[in-house]
Amino acid sequence: MGEQLRPDEAARALAEIGQRQEQVIRLMRMPVWFWWVTAALMVGLTAAVESRRPIVVGIGVAVFVVGLVTMVLRIVLGSIRHAKPRNDLVPPAGVMAILGFVAVVLAVTLPAGFALKATGVSYPATLSMLLAAALLVGGGPLLTRYLHRVMRANVTGGL
Amino acid sequence: MIKPKFDELIHAPTRLSIVSLLAATEWADFAFIRDSVDLSDSALSKQLTILEEAGYVEIRKGFVGKRPRTSARLNSVGRAAFEQHVAALQEIVARAGASVLPG
Which residue in chain B is spatially nearest to A151 when comparing CA positions? Predict the structure, then answer.
């Protein structure tokens, strides 16, 4: 039958395959709120630690840990309850993009923190963390979109 | 290099949808497949049994708490057959040129 299949039928079958695989890729998509919550948790923790008041530090650490664990569980359990996407769906280019994003955030935030501290402003780490938060909120969704694109290209020869 | 090989069993519309979904996963829950492909429980069971008998799919039955849970995964034979089928479809389209690609 393969030989008798019309090209438009084959193209439709390929489109169907692409559409079904897109459904799985969507399970791995990081929601936009993930970046906002991560940014808020990081800024909150840093501000709490920088306050140097034990009770505030304690609350800050507790909120950070509970917030992070809840968020990760919600995302991970929410997707693997339905299906576990293939481990190799994220190609090396995607892994490099994630590492590159982390490197950029650190490369901007750390020098900014040290520079702010050198100028003597109060809460330098919190201020630099605000910068990191802005990078996460602005760049995170872009990273998500890029990962989505490379995963689509990676799955079954980029249908 | 994947050798193109058209697979009649996979190409049936419903099974093509199921196998495509499974090809992107390590495993998938029965309910997820049913809802994604829009099939009834019995229709999905029937198709999964056909794929299992062909040696393409493994079906696991277990429990989450007290609730029964069924999941399916495409094994290496099924994955290879699917990749060869995709290559065969791509070859048919390539022979005809890009004009047949759906917009």
Answer: B24
Instruction: State the complex-level ipTM.
Output: 0.87
Cβ-Cβ contacts under 8 Å, B81 against chain A: none
CA A127 to CA A121: how far, in whole Å? 9
Give start and end residues of each alpha helix (H) in B2-75: 8-11, 13-23, 30-37, 41-53
Distance from CA of A41 to the nearest CA of B (A): 32
Give the nearest chain B residue to A27 (CA atoms): B25
pLDDT digits (tens, 9 = 90+) for A107-147: 999 999 999 999 989 899 999 999 999 999 999 999 999 99
Domains held by chain B: number: 1
Torsion of CA A49, A50, A54, A57, to 10 degrees: -30
Residue B17 belongs to domain spanning: 8-95
- Which residues of B are less than 8 Å from A2 in CB distance? 5-6, 8, 88, 92
In a domain, B3, yes or no: no
Give the tens place of pLDDT for each residue, A83-116: 888 888 888 999 999 999 999 999 999 999 999 9
Give the span between the Cα atoms of B15 and A119, in whole angstroms: 66
Distance from CA of B36 to the nearest CA of A (A): 8
